[in-house]
Automatic annotation (TrEMBL):
This is Pyruvate dehydrogenase E1 component alpha subunit. Residues 1-22 are annotated as: Disordered. Its cofactor is thiamine diphosphate. Residues 75-350 form the Dehydrogenase E1 component domain. The lineage of its organism: Bacteria, Bacillati, Actinomycetota, Actinomycetes, Pseudonocardiales. Its EC number is 1.2.4.1. The keyword Isomerase applies. InterPro entries: Alpha-ketoacid_DH_E1_comp, DH_E1, PdhA/BkdA, THDP-binding. Pfam families: E1_dh.
Length: 401
C-alpha cells in the first residue's frame, strides 16, 4: 500500500474503502503515504534536492528560464512567503481579522502565475496571494480584505485577476463563463489566443459548481485551465477521503486532459501551465492541472491542524520545500551566490516591514462605505437604508462607543 490508488482501492479483505467513516490503521498509514508521494505520474523538473530532471515533453516550455529567470522566480517565492508570514503574525497581534496562509504553496502559485500573459484572465479562490503578486496586485491592495476594511478593491480587468471568492468552487463557474466568452468572441485559435485560469482546492472538487464548470467547458471547448492546488487538506478533511481516484484522473471522464504536476516545483508548474495555456490559446482547451502540494500551515488563523493531522506529514513535506530546492539548484550550479541570497533576504525584510507599517496605519473606512459599489445604478431602497443606518449611528454621538 504505497500509492494514492491503493489507499482508495484497498486489497480485497483489507477492510472498508477510504470513504467509510472510520479508516483502519492500514488505511491511515497508506493515507499518510498518499499525501506525501505524488505517484508515478508526477511531472517534476526539479527534485526536492534541486537536481534538474530532463523532460522531453516539458523542457521546450522553459527554454528561456536561464539562471537569471530562476533567480527571479526564487525572489518571487521568498518575498511572497515573507509577506505571508508577516500577515500571519499581524493577525495574531490583532491587526487582521483573519489570515489565510499560503505557506508551502509558493511554487504552485508563482510557477502558474508567471505562465500567464497580461491578456489572460485569472480567477482565484482566497489563498492565491502568490498569484496576485504575479498579476501586479500588491499585498497592500489585498490585505484590506483580511483587515475587514474592504472587499478587494483592485481593478480586476487591469490586472487580469478577479476578486477573491470564498464560496468554495464558485469561481470555476465564473471562469468557465468568461472562457466561453473568449471563445465566442473569437479570441482563441492561434499563438496569440487568450486563455483563462481558475484556482481551486482539492476540497472544491467535491462541489457541484466545479462539476458543472467541467461539463460546460468541455462541451464548449472553453479555453480554461483548471488549476487545482491539491494541498492534501480541505480544512480537516484529507483528499484521499474525498476521491477514490487521483484528482487529475477525473478529467478523463469529462473528455479533456488532466495532468499531475509537482506543486512544489516552480519550474514544472511554470512549464506545465504554459503548456496547458497554449492548448487553450489554440482552441484545445480545457485542461485540468492537479498541483500536488501541501498546506504547511493551518487552513486559516482560526484553525488548529494539530487536532486532525499527524506531524510526520509536515516533517516529510518540509524536505520538499519549494524554495529550498530552487536555492539548492542555484547554489550548486553557480546560478547564485551567498551575496544574492542575502540580498533577497534583506529585500524580503524591508518588504515585510513596509507591509506592517502600511497595515498599522491603514485608516478605517467610514461606516457608510458598505453601501458603496453595491449596484451600478443608484438604488432608492439602498439609499434609504444608508440614511437610516447613519441616523442610527448619530444616536451614539458623544458617547464612548
Ligand atoms: C460552498 C462552501 N461550502 C463550505 C465552505 C466552508 N469552507 C471554507 S474553506 C473550505 C475547505 C476548502 O478546501 P479546499 O478546496 O481543499 O481549499 P484549501 O482551503 O485547502 O485551499 C470549506 C469547506 C465555503 N466557504 N463554501
Ligand atoms: Mg485543500
Amino acid at each position: 500500500m504505497s500509492s494514492p490508488e491503493q489507499w482508495t482501492h484497498p486489497e480485497p479483505g483489507a477492510g472498508p474503502a477510504a470513504t467509510a467513516a472510520e479508516p483502519t490503521p492500514e488505511q491511515v498509514i497508506a493515507g499518510l503515504r498518499a499525501t506525501t508521494e505524488g505517484g508515478a505520474d508526477l511531472t517534476q523538473l526539479l527534485t526536492p534536492e534541486g537536481e534538474r530532471v530532463a523532460s522531453a515533453r516539458f523542457d521546450p516550455y522553459v527554454t528561456d528560464i536561464d539562471a537569471e529567470a530562476l533567480r527571479n522566480l526564487y525572489r518571487d517565492m521568498v518575498l511572497v512567503r515573507r509577506a505571508d508570514r508577516e500577515s500571519n503574525a499581524m493577525q495574531r497581534q490583532g491587526q487582521l481579522g483573519i489570515w489565510v496562509p499560503l505557506l508551502g504553496q509558493e511554487a504552485a502559485q508563482i510557477g502558474s502565475g508567471r505562465a500567464l500573459r497580461p491578456s489572460d484572465m485569472a480567477f482565484p479562490s482566497y489563498r492565491e496571494h502568490g498569484v496576485a503578486w504575479t498579476r501586479g496586485v500588491d499585498f497592500r491592495e489585498l490585505i484590506g480584505i483580511f483587515r475587514c476594511s474592504d472587499h478587494g478593491g483592485w481593478d480586476f480587468q487591469h490586472h487580469g485577476f478577479h476578486p477573491y471568492t470564498i464560496v468554495i468552487g464558485n469561481q470555476v463557474l465564473n471562469a468557465t463563463g468568461y472562457a466561453m466568452g473568449q471563445k465566442f468572441e473569437g479570441k482563441v485559435g492561434d499563438d496569440n489566443g487568450e486563455a483563462t485560469i481558475v484556482y481551486f482546492g482539492d476540497g472544491a472538487t467535491s462541489q457541484g459548481d466545479v462539476h458543472e464548470g467541467f461539463v460546460w467547458s468541455a462541451v464548449y471547448d472553453a479555453p480554461v485551465v483548471f488549476f487545482c492546488q491539491n494541498n492534501q487538506w480541505a480544512i480537516s478533511e484529507p483528499t484521499e477521503r474525498q476521491s477514490r481516484l487521483p484528482l487529475y484522473q477525473r478529467a478523463r471522464g469529462y473528455g479533456f486532459p488532466g495532468i499531475r504536476v509537482d506543486g512544489n516545483d516552480v519550474l514544472a508548474c511554470l512549464a506545465v501551465t504554459r503548456w496547458a495555456l497554449d492548448e487553450c490559446r489554440h482552441g484545445n482547451g480545457p485542461v485540468l492541472i492537479e498541483a500536488f502540494t501541501y498546506r504547511m500551515d493551518a487552513h486559516t488563523t482560526t484553525d488548529d491542524p494539530t487536532r486532525y493531522r499527524l506531524s510526520d506529514e509536515l516533517e516529510e513535506w518540509k524536505l520538499k520545500d519549494p524554495i529550498e530546492r530552487v536555492r539548492a539548484h542555484l547554489a550548486r550550479g553557480g546560478g547564485a551566490d551567498q551575496e544574492f541570497f542575502d540580498k533577497i533576504d534583506a529585500e524580503a525584510d524591508s518588504f515585510a516591514a513596509e507591509l506592517r507599517d502600511f497595515v498599522f496605519n491603514m485608516p478605517d473606512p467610514p461606516p457608510e462605505r458598505i453601501f458603496e459599489n453595491v449596484y451600478a445604478e443608484p438604488s432608492p431602497v439602498l439609499e434609504a437604508q444608508r440614511r437610516e443606518y447613519l441616523s442610527y449611528l448619530e444616536g451614539f454621538a458623544g458617547s464612548e462607543h
